[in-house]
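Below is one such protein, fold included:
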Amino acid sequence: MKIALYNLTTTVKLGGVESIVWDVGQKLAARGHNVTLFGGKGAVQRQPPGVTVKRYPYIARDTWGRVPPLRKSLNLLKLLERLSMAAWAVGDLMRGGFEIVQVVKPYDFPIGAHVRFYRGARLVYNSHGTDFFPGDRLFRRTIDGAFACSRYNARMVEDHYHIPIDVAYNGFDAELFRPAAPNPQLRARYAPDGAPLIFYAGRLVTFKGLDFLLDAMARLPKAHLLLAGEGPHRANLEAQAQRLGIAARTHFVGNRPHTELPQLHAISDVFVIPSTDHETFCLAACEAMSCERPVVAARTGGLTEVVRDGETGVIVPPGDASALAEALQALLDDATLRMRMGRAGREWTNAMFTWDVVIDRMLTTYARVLG
């Protein structure tokens, strides 16, 4: 098949959705499909084997936001940003002879509908959230097929657009994320004298619930916390750690290359994802479980589909520092439980969320929309 993966930010920034688009392109190409990735002109310079990458100019949302009436709606700014790239990309999309045009944001429905109407391509929506905008329902009849990254996300899309939607979940690199022997020197750097080590990897933003995690750490006087990632909330979190008197036990290491994360999982005892909102899936939890690490996760969004409470980890109420501390302490106190949950987590993730399984589900959707 000739497949267009269309998403402006894939080549502009690093992020979960962006990483998924790159991986989908590479895995589809490895199956023998002709894949072209359409993105904006940006700093992310990747060239997956077998994937054609095209980059186009666009007018950034910050520029559109200089017009006072527009800045009142972030969704409108994102739509205008996407439409500005579409003006440059539409010619290549029309000439490409694509059978499938796959988008991950509703903002790209207009250009997908245009190519569908004039060239007969099938428009497929791979949902990772909502990003709904006024008028987007007008395009629902142009969506030939849809799949979401979780049942939680699928329900939101079904309620909004009233269209059938499959669940494909997201895939992770099971070859990279696997159990490994811990590096003693690396462990001693972040958890000296045999102290327990809790690990978080992700963006440092408010909805990740990290304020509550630091409050929980204040109740775990022996444990150390390792935070891999960056974001606008970092300075606030560092100040909070100082106020709580846990700065010496809280290690901010910034963004780490994906290839380094298995080493950090190997030296940690427990992985934590305390989000309070917006988690439609959680790739980081999959990666941790594949490394045989138990996960303490908040009961929000699609997290409960990824982490199996009592089997591969522990689910706690979102925004509850006391419950978070209690769950973490219970796992830190019981090495046998950690080992049992870790092994169950690897078995679960490798059965449900590897790329081979996910791509098979996607191709099933493609086959149906192509008849």
Summary: The chain is about 40% helix and 15% strand. Residues 365 and 371 are 10 Å apart (CA to CA). The first strand starts at residue 2 and ends at 6.
